[in-house]
Amino acid sequence: MSEATPPAKPTKAAKPARARLSRHQEQRRTVLRGALLTVGLLLLQPLAAIPIVRRLRNRLRPPGAVEEARFLGACIKCGQCVQVCPVQAIVLADAMDGFGVGVPYIDARQQACDFSCDALSCILACPTGALSHELKAKEEVQCGVARLARPEACLARRGEPFRGLARGNSFDGVLRYEEIDRWNAIPVRDHAYDRPVCDLCVIECPIGEHAIRLVPLDPADGGAAGLFTPEVHRGCVGCGVCEMVCPAEPAAIVVDARATFAGRAEGQRPHPHRDDDAPDGDS
Amino acid sequence: MAAPGLLDQLAVVLGRAPRKTPPSPAAAAIYLAKRGRTPKKNELLAEIEHAHGNHTWRNRRWAVLLGINLLFTLSFWIDIQVLEGSLTASRLLGFHLADVYSSLLVMLAQRHVAVNLVIGATTIALFWGLVGGRSFCSWVCPYHLVAEWAEMLHLRLARSGRIRDHSIHRGVRVVFWLLFAALAFATGQTLFLALNPIGILSRLLVYGPSLALGWVLAILVFEVLYARRAWCRYVCPIGLSYGILGAKAPVRVTYDLESCAHEGECRKVCEVSHVLDLTIKGRAEEPKLDVGPDCTRCGLCVDVCPTGALRFELKGVKRLL
């Protein structure tokens, strides 16, 4: 009984079951498939826009980045900015960033931009102008603004000293300490501190006193003799070095990406060389 | 009686099926003389088998492709700084290079002409225009390589009857080219650059792996199970751009009607087999013809041809010599 039906027979019988299409029908199907493929890929447009529309990401962008939505569209996703950064502060975002995939950002807590390049190399490397070539000096950069997000964790506000390694032995970040090596950044774990009152965010700021200062803590804010607080000024460019070196875990001071000082419209930063007037209380 | 004109060839690149025009008297004479003496496929089997073991051009091409992509990787990893960036935009010893279509999208999205991109894209356009249009695809593009491997799997599955290829109208590639450009201009975001498997793979090779690889894998699965070489054949606007830019490019695969056995091995291996329709009996208009501009110059047909009817040629060199 079994040898009566060779296995070849059913397949041969099954084949005519699939109707043979005429040339015209086959042609119509190729067009239909093309239409479906088009619709399928177009559906990815709103999908890729989700992280922008819902503001799922608030990335700190490299120096000179133009307005966020424009920046994502202007970036050709080549990564030349990543390659020229001497401290490798710049990394490329992944697919979860939607349209931001392949677009550069800085994770300041891991590796801040310390302007070791002295030349805004990332801007010079950018072929599209997504990083604006109009910036000429680090003082003109506006990545964001530092903010004391967790004052209770700030050692200076408790009047505490800081001795030892800012981020412990296993931290991979690097920083250029001008007094050690003017030209090259060294690992933060190779540099031990000994400060009577913790002021790492202030002494390591690449911009200096126009960006951040250590001031006595206001008595109205629970201040007393020997208590201090970092005060962010309008020279702050948002490079994130303060966030990187802050010994508190998580960092007491963080950079708000793309933030500007309250009450001042974006782009109205005074020219750096005119910013040497007395502090004007815009902390 | 002339070979297909440039406009005809471009129409085929844009999706039209190759025209069936009657052969010229010279070509007709060859067809007539061949009648009865063209070897049948079973007579050619030994040569076909032999040609299938021939991977001369494929191996050269893979070596060049890996070499160029390795240059990107090493420029960053061991800092030799020869070719920095990735395939969307880069610097060769400091000189700007940029993919033509990617540059166009970015400028449409910004509504701003970026001088460095224009310099880079013009350089690349001149290069591929002078070399061989879509030779970028098969000789440089890393996605082409992985798609070739996926294609092998597709063909194996198809032979065993577990899957079949679903062809799609090639005109859809033009639709995508226009749509991606229109979307960039209208929304300011570059959907194509987010989906572009060339960019994803190029960045993988330079900057390390990413989740975006999942998307590349999804395209490959689609190609294996549903439509052979779908991205390169029906979607990629980069390939279409280079195809058009290289319409008059001198590096060509040329066809010799006299030695062709019309057994069709070349069309089976070809990514863009419509360019080889001229090898079908009665379809060549002239005794010697260039394969159309959609050809990626991958050389698979040159390797597989049992009679040597398809060859690489550098047009103009013979005239110069």
What's the alpha carbon Rg of chain A, rounded to whole Å? 28 Å
Spatial arrangement of strands, main beta sheet of chain A: 1-2
* Average pLDDT figure of chain B: 93
The general outline of chain A is: elongated
Number of domains of chain A: 1
Individual helix count of chain B: 17
Could you tell me how far the N terminus lies from the C terminus of chain B, measured between alpha carbons in angstroms? 28 Å
* Unreliable runs of chain A: 1-14, 263-283
Low-confidence stretches of chain B: none
Note the overall shape of chain B. globular
Q: How much strand of chain A?
A: 5-15%
Summarize the biggest pleated sheet of chain B.
Answer: 3 strands, antiparallel
Strand content of chain B: 5-15%
The helix fraction of chain B, in percent, is: 55-70%
Structural class of chain A: alpha+beta
Q: Quickly count the domains of chain B.
A: 2
Helix count of chain A equals: 8
* Oligomeric state of this protein: heterodimer
Q: What is the terminal separation of chain A in angstroms? A: 94 Å
The secondary-structure element order of chain B is HHHHEEEHHHHHHHHHHEHEHEH
Number of E strands of chain B: 6
